[in-house]
Amino acid sequence: MGKYRFGKVLLKISGEALMGDAGYGIDPAVLNSLSTQLHAVSKSGVEIAIVVGGGNIFRGLAASAGGMDRAQADYMGMLATVMNALALQDALESEGVYTRVMSAIEMQAVAEPYIRRRAIRHMEKGRVVIFAAGTGNPYFTTDTTAALRALEIGADCLMKATKVDGVYDSDPVDNPNATKFDELTYMDVLNQGLKVMDTTAISLAMDNGLPIVVFNMETEGNIERVLSGEHVGTIVRGEQS
Length: 241
Hints:
By secondary structure, this protein is of the alpha/beta class.
C-alpha cells in the first residue's frame, strides 16, 4: 500500500454513472470496469467503502416533484440503492473481491444492517463495504450519506466518481467553453453554487476537513491514479493546501 497516498477511502458512485450510455438501469460494462479497478487497489491493502446512488432506477426528488409524498419517494429511492449495491457486490465478487453490503434499512435476507464498528472491522479484514439505503432517513441524499459514512469510518478522502473529468463553472455538455477547476475550497463550492455535492455534504466535509476528489470514473485506471496522489479531476479542500 506504500505507493498510495490514501490508505482508507470512501468512493461515491452515482446511480446515473452506473447506467453508462443507456437511459436506464445498470450497464454491465460499467460494473466490469469498476470491479476491475477496485480489485487492483483492494488487493494492495487500501481499505475501500462505497456509497452508491439510485438515480438510474428511481429518483425520489423527481417523484416528489410529480406529486408523490416526499418521504415515501425517498424510501423508494433508498430501495433502488440496495439494488445497485447488490449488482456491484456481484461484479466485485466475480473478480474475487470479498464484499459486504450494509443497509441502513434492515433487510437481513440480502444485506447486513449498518453498524459502524462492524463496517470498520470488515474493512480492516480487506473486505470492500458497500453502504446502501442512504442514511435510512428521508430528506437526505446519497451525497450526504457519503460524507457522513466517510467521517464515521475515518476515511482519508471522499472520492466522487462521475461521468465528467472534474468540476466546471457550468455544464460542459451544454457549454463547450466551460472552465474546469483543478482545485477549489469548500467555500468556493458553496458561494458559487457549484454542482459538486449537495450543501449538506459539503458542509459536513468542511467542518471536519474531509477532502473531496471529483473525477471521471469512465477513464480506466483513474481510481488508482487518485489513490496514488496524481492530479486527476478536481480536489475540494480547505484554504490550506
